[in-house]
Amino acid sequence: MPSGGGGRGAAIDEQLRRSAGAGAGRAHPGRRPPGAPALGDPSRQLRAALRLRTRILDGADAVARAAADAVVAAAARRPEVVLGLPTGRTPVPLYDELAARHARGESDLSRVRGFNLDELVLPRGDPRTFRAFMEQHVWGRTGLRRDRCDIPDGAAPDLDAECRRYERAIAAAGGLDLAVLGLGVDGHVAYNMPGPISLPTHLTRLPDGLAASLHVPPSSWPLRALTMGIGTIRGARTILVVTTGPTKATAVRALVHGPENPDWPCSFLQSHPDIEVLLDRAAAAGISGN
Q: Helix H segments across the chain?
């Protein structure tokens, strides 16, 4: 695992302290969740190890069912629950499971608020946008309503202003109640890529290899994206990480065992006061004792 993030971790700690503001109460974007130790606290890794929960399940379908259970239960407790919503290959079984439950009348997500984690900077109507993904896999068929969901506008004329708008919208909704996250093979969370950490929603450049995996041709490189920042995600009251497959094992190890390191963005989630990781046995291969 890459090392050497100690100095940068101290800088992130200072950023979090500046963004925390005064007072307690409900977490919101950019604020360290109540009860979370500061980055740089020498006792934080032990506390994180005691706090972070992992559930190792038999295959992607079992992981999808467990994740759907969490989403449906959150909506049952609070119908207007605010969700952070992922895209990509990993959450497709989750959305299929939610769609099946909706079709059987076993869930009601009609009042849920949703905020997508990220969006690609591509023209409106491009089939590779995450808005197109949501139209195909999520909105309507799962019970989640498009008019109650927000997603960054990757075709906005002023992308920095769009990032600020999105951050304000999340804050106006009261922050995220439940952030459902995938995990990249390199430990990226949303599109918080390895390297310097940004706390709020921001514009980022994606690696060319990732752009190729999204079927974006080299003529459109460098591909950029709008993404919730680590601070926005850490502000969620609850974090649920959903990941499967052997290619994720090293990133899972970085998340669960640390140390916190900007080269593994997922490692900055481990000290959250309410985080659960759902994974199959292949993804769990790097966890001690598995």
A: 6-20, 44-51, 60-77, 92-103, 130-137, 159-172, 208-213, 230-234, 249-257
